[in-house]
Amino acid sequence: MASLGRFAVLAALVLVLYAIIAAVLGARSRRAEIVATAVRALGGSAALLVAAALVLLVALATRDYTFQYVAAHVDDAQPLVYDLTAFWGGMEGSLLLWALVLAGYTLVAVRAVGRAQPALVSGVVVVLAGVAAFFLLMLAAVASPFATVPFPAADGAGMNPLLLNPWMAIHPPTLYLGYVGLTVPFAIVIAALVSGRAADGGVLLARRWMMWAWYCLSMGLWFGAKWSYVVLGWGGYWAWDPVENAALMPWLVATAFIHSVMIQERREMLSRWNVVLVILAFGLSIFGTFLTRSGVLSSVHSFTQSPLGTLFLVFLAGAMLAAFAIAAWRWDLLRSRNELDAALSRESAFVLNNVLFLAIAFAVFLGTVFPVISEVVTGRRVNVGPPFFDHVVSPIAVGLLLLMGVGPLLAWRRSSPEHLRRNFLAPGAAGVAVGAGLLAAGMRAPGPVLVFALAGFVATTIVLEFAGGVRVRQALRGEPLPRALLGLVARNRRRYGGYIVHFGMLLLLCGLTGSSVFATQRVVTLAPGESGTVGPYRVRYDGLGQTTAHGALVVGARLHIFDGARDDGPLTAARNLYLNGRDSTSDVALRSTPRDDLYITLIGWAADGRATLRLLVNPLVLWMWAGGFVLSVGAIVAMLPEARPRTAPVTVPARVLGTAGQ
Amino acid sequence: MTAAITLGLAAAAAWYVLAPLWRRGTAPARGESAERARLVEERETVLRALGDLAFDRATGKMSDADYDTLRGRYEAAAIDALRRLDALDASHPRTGVAGPAE
Amino acid sequence: MLIVLSLAYLVYGGIQQGATYWVTVGELRQRASALPSRVRLGGTVAAGTVRWDTAHRNLSFVITDGTATLPVRYSGVVPDIFAEDRQVVVEGAVGRDGTFAATTLLAKCPTKYNPADPKSPR
Lengths: 662, 102, 122
Description:
By secondary structure, chain A is an alpha+beta fold. Chain A has 20 helices and 10 strands. In chain A, α8 (183-195) packs antiparallel against α9, α10 packs antiparallel against α11 and α17 (481-491) crosses α18 (493-517).
């Protein structure tokens, strides 16, 4: 069985190498049938990878411990579902997943590009096959999931119990859909540049793919944060860990791109900048994959030392050099055709947006690789922790929040100052009202007050955008409000989907601010019957209980919650002690309301029944999850294909006809 | 036995991959020429610009004076693009299926 | 240009706030006084040295880099991964009594590619 897997990977590698050669030959000789064989080779390689994946899945499902990989990540007590998710729980399997997802994307992308711009197909094939070749080479030669031992162990080691959780089950595949997804726009852009025929650098064709990859990255990040919060028991969701940053950086670049591409669509400007963004996004996604596989940076996520890290770095460096060299070669082709009409326009707001996003990305990058840089430069390894990131990123994020509100108020091309002032009035008043209200209610910290005030400002802007659009539509068609609203969104999916996404981001930022600034914590040791208070809650401890579940001894503290005078019912905080005597996880007692989360973990207990509990009140956490959900809805709306503008006869004044063409 | 199966599969795969080389008879679908693609892109850009302009003015973000100026400019550009596209199509009738932009 | 300058200012300030030096256990033992007050230390939890106080709030253990050892005190959130013979990273300073008073405790997962959990809150 394992040899079948090994063979499949090797054969896939051969086919992929063939595809590269055939695509180059076919393009050179302008013989489409040769390129067609390359495409078929990619199809064959994808089929082989599916076969390889099935081999691994079957081995995992049947707990075949002759596979080293299976023995390392599965044990007899593990539920079947997590045996299967162990596929991507280890390094070799995760590489196979990468290759598999890439193969899937390749097939879809080649098809789509073949329909839209057939001339680019050979270039896209070469790039995608090239990336695939690297991963397949790693799988075949360096990190094979199909390594076997002659004498299988009686039981496997199992995955770390922290991973046995639904959120962690979907987090890696979703993130991979994002990471790998960035390869496609990269391929399109490189192909367009090399072909020399696309003045936009292939950017407009690549846009859709970037949006999709961005969406997957967003969801992957969200799932990861949710897992961290719910499972890890420390009450937080983001730690500025290098691997978290590795996913954040491409997301930031992709977000910048989503905005700047709109300028390119309307004004045929910024094509060079957008090309750079696409290349950078891909580079950061490979960099992220590299970070999690080398021992370069100390991260709680990182692998142990492995030659894989160096190889990844070499690949990354090579790919970036080649990509930027190609871009430089075609630089003149990408010359902008227009300039910004006015400083007070939506275009300039988007330019500023890009600058800010890239600033954050740069800061995050710097902070992440700081230990390496400092060691090279000063000889001492210096770490910059969360305070650095918070300090640098927060002000920029606030700036972006402001921009999020001001941007929609500006018209494309040119905005008149009087109109801007008039449109600014209501949202501005709302923002001030929120700020004043919070100050009056006793909130003194300037940062949060500013954030919430801006949130009020932006929220009003968005609502007014919808209202204004609906009004226009009703004036034109006399539709009732619900119809007008639906019609408005349907006809302007990208614009209004975008506004919904902004609203989601807004909720997320509010939730982030609330939970990070206003969290309260108390550690209490209680005897049965005693209560502890935290924030508005009183927590009564009723005693310990013990059960066994899924291979672990579960010690639970029975609690009863009181919110002021109201009885909120029972809750249990537990710790799972696994049979190997070392692993333990927490089952957090969580009560979420829109106002705050009551988050309780059981830290320890004594023989006399006393328990030590950590009581945490995190305000507005629910807003974060809600924000993520809203963002998802908005993204889907925005990604649905836009209705084609209908052509209609237009009467053109004679004077225009007379001046046309000059 | 396994060797035979492997060889058989390899042969089948090779046949599948290389088959297109023997079907040279059908002419490959010609995509749009670079020139035409560029003109179509220009048309789309200008049409989108006009749409934006109308929307921005209707929702009260742009003054009438600015709107008239810009609209005049973009309408002229639209007509220009459409004219050149028509001229190109007239002199180079395209074979095969209609392109995706239609 | 203005933006570049503000960014540089922010970054500089951030580094001031967040920077900690990596040291080894051996260095700490020898040159404690010469090092900056807040340092980061990586090592392994020595077997048999993990002790909790009765209320399970204060942790003490010995960290080792294979040759040198150092006692550590910590009273924040302890990651679930924390156990004997596992790799940890602590941040803090050496107290007068020669014990390392840790303000942050991070544990690294022993197996490959297994995300472990982070540490105490800020």
